[in-house]
Automatic annotation (TrEMBL):
Name of the protein this chain belongs to: Kinesin light chain
Gene3D superfamilies, per the entry: Tetratricopeptide repeat domain (1.25.40.10)
Superkingdom classification of source: Eukaryota
InterPro entries assigned to the protein according to its UniProt record, in alphabetical order: TPR-like_helical_dom_sf, TPR_rpt
Species name: Pisolithus microcarpus 441
Name of a matching Pfam family: TPR_8
Length: 193
């Protein structure tokens, strides 16, 4: 039995109104998204998005797992945007990622993840529309995530690479040599990790 089938079987044991249905739905949506990398169908991603919208209703404002749901929904929408290019998907991804960040204020242990995710969504939107304010905000958020990922953090290299990429994009757009120099330095730092 593959992971998706296993999660569907678990969901059947959690009918509407039962305790744990939100978690069973969430787990199924993650399995559907993960299945795409293992040869799944693009319809699986559509199903995951529909399921996550239902999970959001089961995890209202104040629910401890709501940020994870918002984050996963943004990721699914961005994945679908990457494959189909629907502007509405990247716009919604930014909205949901921003909502997840709002639920993880300074000092929250997962704030770095939310900063990073929102920045990636904004960068994708910048790639689509070439609006410099999206790039500037993405750069600011990636820098903030980098500050929360000090030396030794397992995701520091990813943050260094993303800050470098944003700086390269800004250099391409505005031609400031300082951006290019900093991008190269951060790229070298990422390589060392």
């Amino acid at each position: 039995m593959d992971d998706v089938s296993h999660k569907r079987a678990h969901l059947e044991r959690c009918p509407p109104g039962s305790n744990g249905r939100d978690a069973a739905l969430f787990d199924l949506s993650v399995a559907l998204r993960n299945g795409l990398t293992k040869g799944g169908k693009s319809g699986d991603l559509d199903e995951a998005i529909i399921i996550l919208r239902e999970v959001l209703e089961l995890r209202p404002s104040g629910h401890r797992a709501r940020p994870f749901t918002l984050q996963e929904l943004a990721l699914c929408l961005l994945t679908r945007y990457d494959s189909r290019g629907a502007v509405s998907d990247v716009e919604e991804a930014v909205t949901f990622a921003r909502a997840a960040l709002e639920l993880r204020p300074p000092g929250h242990r997962d704030r770095d993840v939310s900063l990073f995710d929102l920045a990636c969504n904004l960068w994708r939107r910048f790639q689509r529309h070439a609006r410099i304010n999206d790039l500037e905000e993405a750069l600011e958020l990636h820098r903030a995530a980098l500050e929360l990922r000090p030396s030794g953090h397992p995701e520091r290299s990813s943050s260094l690479q993303e800050v470098s990429l944003c700086l390269l994009n800004r250099y391409d757009s505005q031609g400031a040599v300082a951006d290019l120099e900093e991008a190269v330095a951060l790229g070298h730092a990422a390589l060392e990790l």
